[in-house]
From TrEMBL:
This is Substrate-binding domain-containing protein. Residues 33-52 are annotated as: Disordered. It comes from the Bacteria. PANTHER family: D-ALLOSE-BINDING PERIPLASMIC PROTEIN-RELATED. The keyword Repeat does not apply. It is found in: Cell envelope. Belongs to the bacterial solute-binding protein 2 family. Residues 57-313 form the Periplasmic binding protein domain. Its main location: other.
Length: 348
């Protein structure tokens, strides 16, 4: 690895190890004995950081028509650039599964060493991913899962259900036993499984403290959609105690609707972790008091994993040799008290 990395890149690349590390290792060597003489098999992060054989990684993701997706793409590029033994081949972002299948086939024909793939449609890309795996090219699946376990060597996911749980838990804590509270929810696109998972986690967490969702509307992950949905919600509910908005990009429209309505009797939390949301939380001058992260570093983690897999390395600082087949990243809540720990990872 190059000797200098930006703070952002260091944070990106620690995501994989932080997600999977169990904190059990001591010492500095790849195999050997700890201070009690016990043998271990894992490698350390320092060993994995050392340059190895150059590997070529193909990356394909959807069109960057949302701030989060833009951060996914730039994160993959930043991660690859931080290694002096990685060459990244990036396909043009697309929302057309046929075009993405063609990109994967091109990677296979080019005989890349690994493929990192955030599919525009997991089911539609499954067969292409299986073909790559059958050609001996490991595929790292990011964010949207394939429909077969044979389509990927490793999968890196955000935790949509966990986002809902984190949001509900935070709201329960802030309302502190107020069982008659009016809790509202502004979801994303209701037909998407990720929205359904977020809503289910939210409802389950609220139920645990004796609350439920009193009012709910769905938007479409856009600023205009957020403003329209929030206006509808506010008009139908003259009193609200707390709002969870699933997505910080659509949250710009939500906050505009709240300002237009002159409402401030409630607090709001967002979702995904945009820079605009974190700056508003830091300023503490609006109803937005928190957001829950859906990591935009997943493709960066995928590139880091692809490098390790292609170089036959193990994941640093865990006891069990090899690379985990499935990594689910955390969904932490960001507040004014801890925003400084997360703002460098925020997406624009």
């Amino acid at each position: 690895m190059r000797s200098r990395m930006t703070a952002r890149t260091r944070l990106i690349l620690t995501g994989v190890a932080a997600a999977a590390s169990v904190g059990l290792l001591v010492g500095c060597t790849g195999t050997g004995a700890d201070e009690n003489g016990a043998e271990r098999q894992g490698t350390t992060s320092e060993e994995n950081a050392a340059s190895g054989d150059t590997v070529t990684i193909g990356f394909s993701g959807p069109a960057a028509d949302h701030g989060w997706l833009g951060a996914i793409n730039s994160g993959a590029a930043d991660a690859a650039a931080s290694f002096d033994d990685v060459e990244l081949k990036t396909a043009e972002g697309t929302n057309d599964p046929i075009a993405q299948i063609a990109a994967v086939e091109t990677f296979v024909n080019d005989k890349v060493d690994a493929i990192v793939l955030l599919p525009t449609d997991g089911a539609a890309l499954t067969e292409a991913a299986i073909a790559a795996m059958n050609a001996g090219i490991p595929v790292i699946n990011v964010d949207r899962e394939f429909s077969s376990p044979f389509a990927a060597r490793a999968t890196v996911l955000g935790d949509n259900y966990g986002m809902g749980v984190s949001a509900g838990t935070y709201i329960c804590e802030q309302l502190d036993g107020k069982t008659d509270a009016v809790v509202a929810e502004i979801a994303g696109i209701d037909s998407l499984p990720l929205t359904q998972d977020r809503s289910q986690g939210f409802a389950d967490a609220l139920k645990d403290c004796g609350l439920d969702v009193s009012a709910r509307v769905a938007a479409d992950f856009t600023v205009a959609g957020g403003e329209s949905a929030a206006s509808q919600l506010l008009s139908a509910n003259p009193k609200i105690d707390a709002i969870w908005n699933h997505d910080d990009d659509q949250g710009i429209g939500v906050l505009a609707a709240i300002a237009s309505a002159g409402r401030d009797e409630f607090f709001m939390m967002g979702g995904a972790g945009s820079k605009a949301a974190m700056e508003a939380i830091e300023a503490d001058d609006s109803v937005l008091k928190a957001t829950v992260i859906y990591p935009s570093t997943q493709a960066a983690d995928g590139v880091a994993l692809a490098r390790l897999i292609a170089q036959s390395k193990t994941l640093g600082d865990i006891v069990t040799p090899g690379i985990p087949n499935r990594i689910v990243l955390d969904a932490p809540v960001v507040t004014k008290e801890n925003v400084d720990q997360y703002i460098d990872l925020a997406f624009e």
